[in-house]
Amino acid sequence: MNSQTHCAAAPVELLAVQDIEVIYDGAILAVAGVSLRVGQGGIVALLGANGAGKSTTLKAISGLVRADRAQVSRGAIRFLGVDTAGVAPNELARRGIVHVLEGRHVFAHLSIEENLRSGGFLRNPGRRELERDLERIYAWFPRLKTKRKTQAGLTSGGEQQMLAIGRALMTRPKLVLLDEPSMGLAPILVEEIFEIVAQLNAREGVSFLVAEQNLNVALRHAGYAYILENGRVVGEGEAHEDIQHFYLGGRSA
Amino acid sequence: MTFFLETLIGGLLAGTLYSLVAIGFVLIYKASGVFNFAQGAMLLFAALTFVSLQEQGVPFVLALLLTSVVMAIGALIIERAVLRPLVNRSQITLFMATLGLSFIIEGLAQGLMGAQVRALDLGIDDVPLFFGEIMVSQFDLVAAATAALLVIVLALLFNHTRIGVSLRAVADDTRAALSIGINLNRIWQIVWAVAGVVGLVAGLLWGARQGVQFSLSLVVLKALPVLIIGGFTSIGGAIVGGLIVGAAENLAEAYIGPLIGGGITPWFAYFLALIFLYIRPAGLFGERTIERV
User: What is this structure's pTM?
Assistant: First the structure.
């Protein structure tokens, strides 16, 4: 059904999170003992309710925890086999991890096109190369092209989500951390966005780690899933069968 | 009518100098969320450096370049030694840090280059020019034109270069900027360097007016009402705020002054700012948050 299980045997895994613990302000424990893996070319879902620790886990991986005055106090995160402890977020982005934050976080006062360009600066591309990347994103999200000069803050929620993903893709990532893409969007838009994610994965080989509360749509598109509760992984398995069993039958996978 | 226009124009032209000082604040405030109290000290430092170089016989353009380089190096040091260690701290912490910084810079400037008043000659004749009936100071005109030129350069930088777009991205959403790999530390270095150069231009124009001396660093206090009126987050606001303060000061001194015995200029800007705080606390052009989910 997918290549996830085979990838686990591949020589270098894309992402391996081992038993991490994240502490806010030196006191509040947000994540305690999360381990997960993302193989090359996989789509992995991170499921759980509000406050389960999904966002914190993603921020630990992208290095953004430190911007929230938090830190990974235990465990290890390896990206392409290299420990990422102490690596700055911009350096992680250069290595191929890009984080699409919960709530989109587009640059509201910049135009759609400026938002996209800002994602491309990272690799310091030539002018022509940047234009090519821009056209590639517009091909994925034609709607963004029609509004390229519009201030991003004035576009709809769905457009902002597409922009946030498009901006992230401009960095040419190997792994996209996608936090709650369905938040506040109409079901049809959510479906459209997940459809594009699946296509990007299939055609460009970009891997995704998607945090979601919306189990239904996440499980339909992910190959593998982890379930978080109170900052711990309480279940994991093949998205199609095991996880649905977990939720329906209460059986730990 | 002629008197009114003359007073108004004189005020507007003087206001561009306020704008120039305020722009330095806006740049840093937007990019790093810090109200940089040291902007005045940076201005003094820049002007003193320039004057000292000129006294050594360094030609004008070279002195300008060298001072810019000095300000850029200063920005690197400030970013590394003050901002980076205090990243993610509360605004008041950062504000206190810049307060301390302003004393360090002032002390350093005076220690290295002396505390006496230095005359600064930019080679602009301060002769009155007549447009019809209206008399305008040539120096004010040149100063205003310089300010306008600087604003145009900044606008081009912000809208048409990668660094400019990155700067605006950081100003909009620091976290998102981090997430797509923008190097925050480098952006801060650039912003402080640019603010230093803006401070240099402002320092030269102010310095030519009133001599280069310690009190130059007090223009910070004059920039405050300008920022309150124009808004802390908008360069356009800083410009308009400066013009309003300049014009209002001049007009008030000329028309209200005689009624209450004069001496209005020192406080009128603050009075105006207070009114703005009542009716429009974000300032005229303060960031209107765009929110649409």
Answer: 0.87
Q: Which of A66, A93, A109 sits opposite B181 (nearest CB)?
A: A93
ipTM value of the model? 0.88
Lookup result for tokens 């591309």: A125
Q: What residues in A contact B290, CB-CB < 8 Å?
A: 108-109, 151, 153-154
Q: Does B157 touch chain A (CB under 8 A)?
A: no
User: Cβ contact (<8 Å) for A90 and B184?
Assistant: yes
* pLDDT at residue number A8: 45
Contact between residue A197 and residue A218 where contact means Cβ atoms under 8 Å apart: no
Q: Within 10 A of B265 (CB to CB), how many other CB atoms are there? A: 14
Q: Does A147 contact chain B (CB < 8 Å)?
A: no
CB of A207 closer than 8 Å to CB of A176: yes
What order of strands is seen across the sheet that includes strand A70-79?
A28-38, A15-24, A70-79, A82-83
Measured between CB atoms, does A106 come within 8 Å of chain B? yes
Q: Do residues A54 and A11 share a domain?
A: yes
B236 is written with which tokens?
């356009």
**CATH number for position A219:** 3.40.50.300
Cβ distance B197 to B39 under 8 Å?
Answer: no
What gap in Å lies between CA A88 and CA A108, rounded to an integer?
25
Q: Are residues A39 and A163 in the same domain?
A: no
pLDDT per residue over A56-114, tens digit each?
999 999 999 988 889 999 999 999 999 999 899 999 999 999 999 999 999 999 999 99
| Burial profile A93-125: b = 16 or more Cβ within 10 angstroms, e = fewer | bbebbbbbbbbbbbbbbbbbbbbbbbbbbbeeb
Structural domain contains residue A195 = no
Say whether A105 and B292 touch across the interface (CB within 8 A). no
- The answer to whether the beta carbons of residues B82 and B149 sit under 8 Å apart is no
Query: Cα–Cα distance between B200 and B43 in angstroms, integer?
Result: 6
**CA dist list (Å): A72 to A66, A76, B184:** 9, 8, 21
Top mean-pLDDT range of A161-165, A247-251, B121-125, B252-256: A161-165
Q: How confident is the model at residue A6 (pLDDT cuts 50, 70, 90)?
A: very low
**Closest to B150 in 3D by CA, of B204, B225, B216:** B204
Residues ≥6 apart with Cβ < 8 Å to B249: B11, B14, B264, B265, B268, B269
Q: Is A193 a member of any domain?
A: no
pLDDT of A3 above 80: no
How many angstroms separate the CA of residue B167 from the nearest CA in chain A? 10
Closest Cα to residue B265, out of B3, B82, B2, B15?
B15
Question: Which domain, by its residues, includes A156?
Answer: 102-172
Share of chain B above pLDDT 70, in %: 98
